[in-house]
Each structure stands twice: as C-alpha cells, then as structure tokens.
C-alpha cells in the first residue's frame, strides 16, 4: 500500500551527514535478474535530513524480491566517509491477489462423475446451498490473479477454510496447484468425515 522506498543515511552514531546525493545505482529482481531501475536519484524527505525517498513503484516492478545498490555521496568529497557507495540493500514488492475462475462441484465419490458445476464469484454467496453426503466429493477449483500486473500467480501456500455456521467451528485445508496454476481442493467426504467431526452443516 506504500509505494515509497525510504533510505536512512547516518554516521555510526545515527547523526545526519548533511546534504547528500543519494541514488539507486541499480535495482535487480532476484529470481529473473531483470533490472528495473538504474541511476535514480532519491529526494530528501522534508523535516528529516537523514531520510531520502523515491516512489519505487513508478518503475512498475512486478512482485518479488529485489537487490538494490545504493550510493550516498556528499557535494564535497569527504575522506572520512567509507562504504557509502554500492551499498547492498533488499526490497520486497508485494501485490494484491484476486480469486478468479472459481467453481465448486459435488461429484460421486466412486464413479468419478463430474457433477454439476457451480460458478463462484467472491464475495458473493451462491444462490442455493449445496448438498453432499459421505458418498460424494466436493471439488473446489480456482486461480489466483495478480491485481496489479494481471497475470496468474502462485502462492507459497493457499488455504481453504470451511466454517460451520451453527457451531462457528473452522477447519482449514491446503489447495494445491498444477503447472498451469490451477488450484484444486478435492474433499472426499467419507475420508474427511472425521476432520469435519461427522457434523452436518
């Protein structure tokens, strides 16, 4: 939610070094080594002479971790300054995620029938409750989409939470994705009955 990258530059005692030219020499994405910034000047932050800032998202970086090389140079050379150029920093770009292509199916457990597919649209509820018993499976499918870039994505772990409306009891399952980034949760209601405390709802 905050696009501004702020760097604090001080001496070892935490005091200001006076006016400096602070630049991001390069910003490289860790996973694909793509350079998104070179030689960009940070602006001093009004009211704090130790802070310098830049809107990092102006370069439209995709989500992920970035390696930055930052330099802070005074207007007049000062031999007392060391390790003030090419300093390595880390930055992480987050994103917002939407759930797309979501659908839920109640299918026969043994026959493997596909069953009727109900489309889902967050945050809307389906018009009619689904009914399933121990002889059936409930299959949930969906994809994750980066709201900013617009491409499909994966997450480190994706959880699906079921809540019993009467008891307010929650149970959490993990949805796995395939190579095409299609997530799937396949609940065999006979084998998962114990996890659900054999409760209707």
From TrEMBL:
Q: Which one GO biological process term can you cite for this protein?
A: protein N-linked glycosylation
Domain Ribophorin II third, residue spans: 101-201
Pfam families from the UniProt entry: Ribophorin_II_2nd, Ribophorin_II_3rd
GO cellular component labels: oligosaccharyltransferase complex
Concerning InterPro entries, the annotation shows: Ribophorin_II_2nd (IPR055375), Ribophorin_II_3rd (IPR055374), Swp1 (IPR008814)
Q: Where are the transmembrane segments?
A: none
| Lineage: superkingdom | Eukaryota
- The Ribophorin II second domain covers 2-91
Q: By what name is this protein known?
A: Dolichyl-diphosphooligosaccharide--protein glycosyltransferase subunit 2
């Amino acid at each position: 939610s905050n696009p501004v990258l702020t760097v604090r530059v001080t001496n070892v005692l935490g005091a200001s070094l006076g006016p400096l030219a602070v630049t991001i020499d390069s910003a490289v994405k860790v996973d694909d080594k793509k350079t998104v910034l070179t030689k960009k000047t940070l602006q001093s932050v009004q009211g704090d002479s130790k802070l310098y800032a830049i809107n990092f998202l102006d370069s439209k970086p995709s989500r992920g971790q970035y390696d930055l090389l930052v330099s802070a140079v005074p207007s007049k050379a000062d031999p007392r300054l060391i390790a003030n150029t090419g300093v390595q920093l880390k930055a992480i770009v987050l994103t917002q995620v939407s759930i797309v292509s979501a659908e839920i199916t109640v299918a026969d457990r043994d026959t493997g029938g596909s069953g009727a597919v109900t489309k889902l649209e967050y945050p809307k509820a389906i018009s009619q409750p689904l009914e399933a018993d121990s002889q059936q499976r409930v299959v949930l499918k969906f994809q994750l989409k980066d709201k900013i870039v617009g491409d499909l994505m994966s997450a480190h772990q994706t959880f699906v939470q079921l809540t019993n409306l009467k008891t307010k009891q929650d149970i959490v399952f993990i949805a796995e994705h395939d190579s095409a980034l299609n997530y799937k949760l396949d609940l065999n209601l006979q084998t998962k009955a114990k996890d659900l405390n054999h409760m209707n709802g």
